Amino acid sequence: MKKSIIALATAFTVFFSANTIQAKNNNSELTAIEIADSQLQSVYDAYFTVKDALIKSDSKLTSAKAKDLLSAITAVKMDKLKSNEHTVWMKVVKKLTADAKSISTSSDLKKQRETFKSLSKGTYDLIKVSSPTEPIYKQYCPMADADWLSKEKAVKNPYYGSSMLTCGNVVETIK
Asked: How far is CA 86 from CA 72, 114, 129, in A?
């Protein structure tokens, strides 16, 4: 009887130890995935704040938000990205950085909007491979002949602000 209890206790110990080790391994994998997702999510979030400032036609706010975007871009740790994201990141990071810097140092709303076209293209290329958690809408304005990304389906045009706020349409939904 005593040997049975000891054998049973040993079996429980081994079982629970194995589960604990497996849980720790799963947590470290999950953390790596979460880190990769958060790496680019901060860039996307900052991009959306630049877009929102352009919608308001506020060049000072746009400049400030572009500085935040620049910080988010430089904070990305490339070695933490998924391989497909890393490949696209390497293609777009210099242009994203240059565009964010250009917008952040300009107080000319027209120039900021022109540079935002290029910024949107690079961000689109990146978000397309990163499987966003919520739908992202690629929108197009024929008057500006330019695209932008939005978290909302409703069109709010960053290229014309209040003068033509709803000019444009959704051309793609990225999921």
From this structure: 16, 27, 10
pLDDT, one tens digit per residue, over 69-91 is: 999 999 999 999 999 999 999 99
Residue 157 lies in a domain: no
152 within a domain of the structure (yes/no) = no
Q: Could you give the strand order of the β-sheet that contains 146-150, starting from the edge strand earlier in sequence?
A: 146-150, 136-141, 169-174
Condensed to tens digits (0 to 9), the pLDDT of residues 136-155 reads: 999 999 999 999 999 999 99
Amino acid at 167: C
Number of domain units in the chain:
1
Asked if the structure places residue 115 within a domain, the reply is yes
pLDDT in tens, 11-53: 545 555 444 445 444 444 444 444 445 679 999 999 999 999 9
| 122-152 burial code (b ≥16 CB/10 A, e <16) | bbbebbbbbebeeebbbbbbeebebbbbbee
Q: Is the pLDDT of residue 68 over 70?
A: yes
- Output the CA torsion sign for 39, 122, 69, 44: negative
CATH of the domain at 93: 1.20.120
**Domain span including residue 122:** 2-133
Region for 102 from its dihedrals, namely left if φ exceeds 0, alpha if ψ lies in -120 to 50, beta otherwise: alpha
**Residue 150 is assigned to a structural domain of this protein:** no
